[in-house]
Amino acid sequence: MRSYSLIAPAKINLYLEIIGDRPDGYHELAMILQSIDLADQIDLHAASTEAIRVYCNHPQVPTDNSNLAYRAAALMAKQFPDAFNNFGGMDITVKKRIPVAAGLAGGSTNAAAVLVGIDLLWNLGLTKSELEELGAQLGSDVPFCVSGGTVIATGRGEQLSPLTSLNNIYIVLAKYHSLEVSTAWAYKTYRQVFGSTYIKNTEDLAARASAVHSGEIVKAILDKDAAEISRKMHNDLEKVVLPAYPQVLQLRELFASQEGVLGTMMSGSGPSVFAIVESKAQAEVVKERIRSAIPDEDLELFVTRTIATGIQILK
Ligand code: C5P
Which intervals hold domain GHMP kinase N-terminal (predicted)? Predict the structure, then answer.
């Protein structure tokens, strides 16, 4: 086939704990990542030239070599030069629905879709773990996005342990369209505020990372208990993002005060905030109440649900 269309779902963080600093400048994390059905569509078309071109319907998304989807294609061309010479370049079209710079892994899931799509386009037959290894070179969340689902992610976020699939938990998601939080800023500020916590002892690090595997939220996930999951959610980055962005704090508090909301949390480095609710009907009610309380056109609101899959091939 000379073209593929792929669905690239967003993620939310049910849990994000910063364990310590790493010598490479990143942070050692313990996270629980969850795919949701809010998704972009990626179309890949083989081109007759060697060029890799990116098109996107969203004006804020760059289409040059800073775009993660472009970088994923360039990485594949570098890793598999024979296939690139044989098959040539491609046009990558990103139909964006996932809010950008939102803490929802929008760019990372686009990159994961390009890796999966080129593997098909060039008949490479790569394994899931080979795709994840390539993904880790592009960004910390890309490996997760390949297969998605409900996953404990440790290390930089690239070491993955899948949990039971958590389907059809309804979520209301909110993001101010024009508000962006830089992930690098959030981690840097956390380090400045809470001090350096460089962990030298790798055994200590492994023990602390593995503690999340036996933690209460994992038990709640294995029990598929949405109310208990909601009570045990946590995100260390809220400690720096909420004080700096009063709009995000306000959204968080507004969600928490709504009837039918089981729990609310910022996703990743923000600024999107999500609420777990009891049902689809309740999600629609909560969404409308938030819309009435904040009648600002800049506020984007979505009803979405948890899903058990990452990148899916449409055709
Ligand atoms: O890996 P990715 O490019 O998505 O990370 C964006 C930024 O977030 C990094 O440049 C780094 O500043 C910060 N980060 C971190 N520790 C992680 C993941 C990301 O400090 N585990």
Answer: 67-149
